[in-house]
Specification:
single chain; 468 residues; alpha/beta; Rossmann fold; Serine Threonine Protein Phosphatase 5, Tetratricopeptide repeat; DNA Cyclobutane Dipyrimidine Photolyase, subunit A, domain 3; six-stranded parallel beta sheet; 6 strands; 46% helix; DNA_photolyase_1_CS_C; Crypto/Photolyase_N_sf; Cryptochrome/DNA_photolyase_1; chromophore; flavoprotein
Amino acid sequence: MNTPITIAWFEQDLRLSDNPAFAAAAMKDHILPIYIFDNRNAGEYEMGGASRWWLHHSLTELNEKLDGKLNFFQGDPQSIIEALCSRFNVTDMFWNRRYEPWRISRDKKIKANGLMQGKNVQTFNASLLNEPWTILKKDGTPYKVFTPYYRQVALGGSDTQAQGMPRIFGTLNTDDKASTLDELPLLPKIGWDTQFYDCWSPGESGAQSVLQTFLANRLSNYKEGRDFPALKSISTLSPHLHFGEISPRQIHDAFLSLADDNNREHFLRELHWREFSYYLLFHWPDLPNKNLKVRFNLFPWQENSEALTHWQQGLTGYPLVDAGMRELWQTGFMHNRVRMITASFLVKNLLVDWRLGARWFWDCLVDADLASNSASWQWVAGCGTDASPYFRIFNPTTQGVRFDPEGLYTKHFIPELKDLPAKYLYRPWEAPPDVLKKANIILGETYPFPIVDIKVSREKALAAYRQL
């Protein structure tokens, strides 16, 4: 085929508005939009089941927006793109930059190969407000602490002007050797995802709807309410951001149009926390698997598969921890404060290596983001660059009393405790026998005894830390 073809490669930018790579391709006469499910180069970071579910439905909507012309492939992108170049007269290749180390390495090779063949290969920023290499200290080194990084960002500003939906001037082409979406191994073979459909609407339309709902109904109580899991005060934008169904520029622009208040500024700060996670991953590519504070390489993590399984299944005997872990399994999501509490319990009360917790979240979260997941787990474990002090150990009992005092969140995910009075909800082992009987609770049968003593395990963790 001699007709000049432009490849528009989608990956974690599953939208048409404010998508600079697609906007550039839309100016061309003949466009070949492609999506490649790369389950070869990801290695140990191959996409988890919850993320695959989301991806399937997000791609469904994107394909509809492209009039069914999105071409699906599975395998190594370099080989697939080389094959496309052999079948078509590919003159231009556009995609948006990705920041996971394995994707950076892969994409550099693809770009270099395309340029060597004389093609016009361009990449764009569609995922961040600021590229990681643009924010540096005066000596040219990267920041390790968020606050000075954030001050630098605030001083320098950023190009946050989001672009609208591009007009497609040319025609969208298809490849008869492409797969169908259903041929990609994305949807689960067993029905553990049943409740996902009631919780989420993946896709660009769903992302815009979530943003507008948050601005209209939730933002006004964000700074205070975001710590209370029973309240609808968080944005739930994270999976939409991860898959690029909405850009940080679009969110940033929407917030700049609002009146300046503490809720707005607090949310924008959280948006920059996401940026900082990518910043750390870019400058320290071992973030997902190596302690950034190297002294933690000597920390005596315990190999306790039984405790890990209890934690994964929400059977630790600590109701707020168990509610969070069950929310994760049932919905593919967990409230932000409960994420900190469950993570702290695993690494500081059970002394289980943070990487095992990060792996479980990676498999179960619909917003499983390598940068945010890795940075957050290192923060909780105390071994990250901008880490919470190791001695900050969340007490799940007092956290429950403080942030879910009526038990609305906890009892929703642990219905076997629904009749237990709030006085004993977060310490059911202290409830008198008649109270347990009235609530139809048999400890050790209908709900477990605690698998570890909070006070004893805390002291054990602090002793281990002092040895470092």
